[in-house]
Write a structure and sequence with these properties.
Length: about 400
C-alpha cells in the first residue's frame, strides 16, 4: 500500500496511519518515526555502516560528496567526495574502512573499480578491481571478507558472479555463483550466512523477483529459502535481531512501502509496519534497536528528473514527478508501545480538514498552494483527508 499525500518533512509514526488504534499492532510489527532532512537529495545510492555511522555514496544525478549520518546523534556531515560520479554501486565496511564496488559511470557504463574510504584521514584509495565489473549488485561482509554478489555486467545482463574481496591482501577469490542472477537485490548476513532476496531480471523492474537464497561459506554452496512475500527490487536492507529486513523497492509502475523480515532460523518472512514514504534507490542501516532508512526516490521509472529542491522546508515540489526524497526515517521493531506512550504524553492533538489534498502518490496541496506543517501526519476518515498535528500547527 502506498499512502498518498505526505508532506516532505513529515514526522512519521506508523501507528498514526490508518485508524490510530491499538489493534493495528496485531497485523503490523514495529513503529516508524521521521528524521530531519539530509544535506542533499540522492537516489540510487550505496550505503554501508560502521561504528554507529552510515556512509552514503553516489547519486543518480552525479553528486559526489560523501554523506555521513551519525545514528547516535541523528546528525549529518559531509566528507571527501567520491573520486567521480557513480550510481548503483555496492558498499560494505571492514577493518575501519568503507569499500565501494563497481556501479554505473558516464551514464550506464559499468565499472569494476573498487575504492576504500578511510574516515581517519578522510581520503579515498583505489584497490584491486573486481574480476567481473558490475553495477546494481550487492555487498556484505562475512568473516573479514566482502562478498560481492550478482548485478548487471558490462552487457547490462545479469551476472551469476559471486566474488570475495580480502581487504587484508587486496585480492579476490571466486565463490559459488548465485543460482538466480539478478540486479537491484537485497543482501544481509545472519549467523555467518549470506542472504540474497528479491531483485529484478536484466534491469527491468517489470520482472521483479521474490527469490530468497542462502549462501553457506563453510560449504561454499547456496540453498533456496522461502520466497519473499512481495516481489520487488531497488530495496534497502538491514539485519537486526537475527532477521534481515527488506524495505521499500519499486516495480515499473509503483513504489513499495513494504517492510518484510526474513528469519533464517525457521525460513519464514514476517510483515512489519509499512514504510511511511514508499521509495526505492535508498539505503538502510541498523543501530542498537533501530533501523534507519536514508534518501531514495518516491517515484518509479527509469528516467530521473534533474534534482530540484523545494522552496521551503515544509513544501513538496509537485512539478517534478521524479524528485529524489531526501528525508531519513528510522524503524524500531520493538518500540511500538514506547511511541504510543510518547504520543499519549504529547499535547492534545488537533484534527483539521485538508479536503483538497490530492490522492496522487507523493503529492499534497490545498487550493492556495500551502502544505501542512512538517509535524502533521496524513489520515483519512469518512469525511475525507485530514492531518493530525500533534504540535498544534495548522494546515
Amino acid at each position: 500500500m502506498t499512502v498518498p499525500g505526505f508532506c516532505r518533512n513529515a514526522v512519521f509514526v506508523s501507528l498514526l496511519l490508518g485508524t490510530l488504534t491499538l489493534p493495528a499492532l496485531a497485523h503490523e510489527v514495529g513503529a516508524w518515526a521521521g528524521l530531519s532532512d539530509a544535506p542533499a537529495e540522492r537516489s540510487e545510492v550505496a550505503v554501508a555502516s560502521m561504528d554507529g555511522k552510515a556512509y552514503v555514496v553516489g547519486d543518480f544525478n552525479g553528486e559526489t560528496d560523501l554523506m555521513i549520518f551519525d545514528m547516535a546523534t541523528e546528525s549529518w556531515a559531509i566528507a571527501a567526495p567520491f573520486p567521480y560520479p557513480v550510481h548503483h554501486a555496492a558498499a560494505a565496511a571492514q577493518g575501519g574502512l568503507i569499500y565501494v564496488f563497481g556501479g554505473y559511470v558516464n551514464g550506464w557504463d559499468v565499472t569494476g573499480e573498487v575504492w576504500a574510504y578511510d574516515p581517519q584521514s578522510n581520503t579515498w584509495t583505489p584497490r584491486a578491481p573486481m574480476p567481473t565489473p558490475r553495477a546494481a549488485g550487492a555487498a556484505a561482509t562475512i568473516g573479514g571478507k566482502i562478498h560481492v554478489v550478482s548485478g548487471s555486467d558490462v552487457e547490462l545482463v545479469n551476472s551469476t558472479a559471486h566474488e570475495v574481496y580480502d581487504p587484508a591482501s587486496d585480492s579476490w577469490s571466486i565463490a559459488a555463483p548465485i543460482p538466480t542472477p539478478r540486479d537491484h537485490l537485497a543482501v544481509g548476513v545472519i549467523h555467518g550466512q549470506l542472504i540474497a532476496a528479491g531483485g529484478r531480471v536484466n534491469g527491468d523492474p517489470a520482472f521483479n523477483l521474490a527469490a530468497t537464497e542462502v549462501f553457506d561459506p563453510q560449504s561454499n554452496s547456496w540453498s533456496s529459502g522461502e520466497d519473499m512475500p512481495t516481489a520487488r527490487s531497488g530495496t534497502a536492507s538491514a539485519v537486526l535481531d537475527g532477521a534481515m529486513f527488506v524495505i521499500g523497492g519499486e516495480s515499473r509502475t509503483e513504489v513499495f512501502d513494504a517492510v518484510e523480515a526474513y528469519i533464517l532460523a525457521n525460513d519464514t518472512w514476517q510483515q512489519h509496519a509499512p514504510l511511511p514514504t514508499a521509495r526505492h534507490g535508498f539505503g538502510a542501516a541498523a543501530y542498537e534497536d533501530r533501523i534507519f532508512t536514508l534518501l531514495g526516490s518516491p517515484s518509479p521509472a527509469a528516467t530521473v528528473q534533474r534534482r530540484s529542491r523545494s522552496s521551503g522546508p515544509d513544501r513538496l515540489p509537485i512539478r517534478f514527478p521524479r524528485l529524489v526524497w531526501d528525508r531519513g526515517s528510522f524503524f524500531a521493531p520493538h518500540k511500538a508501545q514506547d511511541f504510543l506512550n510518547q504520543l499519549r504524553a504529547a499535547p492534545a492533538p488537533r484534527w483539521q480538514s485538508c479536503s483538497t489534498i490530492s490522492s496522487k502518490r507523493s503529492r499534497a496541496k490545498n487550493l492556495n498552494g500551502r502544505l501542512p506543517h512538517r509535524s502533521c501526519t496524513w489520515h483519512r476518515n469518512s469525511n475525507g483527508p485530514l492531518y493530525f498535528c500533534p504540535r498544534q500547527q495548522i494546515c
